[in-house]
Structures are given as structure tokens and as C-alpha cells.
Amino acid sequence: MADETEQFSATQREAGDGAPGAIAAFPYDRMTVERFRAAFPRARWREDLGAWFVPGATAARRLNAWSSREWTGVLAHADDRGRDAFVFEPLVSRYLEVADDLVVRTPYSRAVVAELRQVPWARWDPASKAWRVPFRSLEELRRRWPAIEDAARRAEPEERRKREASRRAAPEHADRLAEAAERRRNRYPVPEDALPPLGRVLQTHAGCVVFEVVTGEVVEPEVAARFYPGVAAGAGTLVGAIRRRPTHDELVRAWPAREEAGPAETERGWWQPTIKVLREERRRAASTERARATRRSAQRGSHAVT
Question: Annotated region Disordered: where (predicted)?
């Protein structure tokens, strides 16, 4: 009953002229509106609120009492109408079963979940591992069903395997693998004759970093041009430097540049960040560190329970 009556809400408040009353909101149904108007003849529709306004100091209490008496019957009537409509024009799909309500069972898909969350009264049932949709929501489910069924088909394991095989066969797949391998090395090319200071927050074409060590490993020109196009070696040689993301504390203590970097500094590949850049990097670092702390706390909690 709680899942159903939550579709009706009554909130005590004053009208614009200060008169006491309550607002009532519920899904539109002609018969429901007629019964509501019969029970509350002084109620008036408020366009600014998108709801009904019932005057009176005890309006909210009277509205909730009416809801508890009437709403079950209203929903049962709506279910009967939806069931009759389904018999007249059934919705046939391998993803849909008919029981006391409509049972939607599909492979997991974010698109399916997003669509079903927009269907009134639809709910996830962990016991049956399916979505349960009452017949009163048939028309909205029918309207969204083409998108739900298409997303479900795409989420089938065989379809996923086909897409994965197609992705691996694409020419750009090798490029993605090479890029991922280069990223895992945590290196950045720097000119051999213009090495960056270690342990300081610096800005690069990859964002703010802290260089920990210069390995001296030569970065081939074709590799630099492919993955680090902003860095120019000129007539010199590019060597690898191991980098990491700075912590929030390091970003707070970093000294900002007074002005934007010039062409010579950006071609070199590293330069001192401005206060604008540091502020944005601090915001991101703080968010990342909060998320990590939350995950660690959750993991400690789960270990304590076990």
C-alpha cells in the first residue's frame, strides 16, 4: 500500500492571500478527479502549483484520510481498466510475462532501467530479479516498450560478443591498446636540455603533475608525436620522466605563475600553472580524495561486519 499511496501527496500550506489550506497532487484520472471534487467541493486548481488547493486549517488531515479510504479503490479500478486493455491489445515479447501484474525481465541494461524508472508504479523486485509493473501503468509501458525491447536485445550476451568482436576488428582498436600501454608507463617526455624540477607541481599538456624522477630513457620522436603532440624537442632529444598526480595539499601549497605560459614554455612541455588552473585542479583533487576516503571507509565497514 505504501508504494501505491505515495503517488498521492498532501502538504499543509497557506494560499497566496494567507488563507490556510493544503495542496493535493496525484496522477490525473477523470474518475479520481470527480470523486475528489465531490469530497472537497471548495478545492480549486492552482496553475502556479500544478496541484489542487483545499482551504481549511485541517485540510491536510482531511486529504490524507480521504486518500486512505479512496485511493485503494481508485488504483484497483485503474488496474482493471489496464487489464482489460491488455486483453484487447496484448503486448507480446519474450521479455514480458503476465502474472498479477506485468513482469519485465531483461538482461541488465542502463537504458532499460532508465526507461522503466519513468513508468509510474514500476518497481524492481529483488526476489524475482525482475521489474513489476501494475496494469494501471500499461499505456506508459506500451509507449516506452520499443526502446526497452531494443535496449534489451542489445544487452543480450551474444549481441555484446558481436559488438566486442567488431570493436576488436576495427583499425582503431590497436591504437587504443597502444595508448593504454603508454598511459600505464606514467611517463612524460621532457627535453634533455630543459629538465623539470622534481617534487614540484607543474603544468603539462596532460594537466598538473609532479615529476618524481627523470629516467633518461629516450622517447622516440614518432612516439612523442603520436601520444604527446604538444611537446616539441626541437633539435634536442626527449627523455622520459616519471610523473604522478599531485595531492590536494600539494596543489594548495603550489606557488602560481603571475601570467600565462608563453609559446616557448608550452613547447618545452612543462610550465608553472596559474592560480585559475590550480583552483580547478584543487577542486578535482579534493573530490577524488573524498571519493577514495568514502570507498576505504565502506571497505573497512564491510570487513568489520564479516
Answer: 1-21, 152-189, 282-306
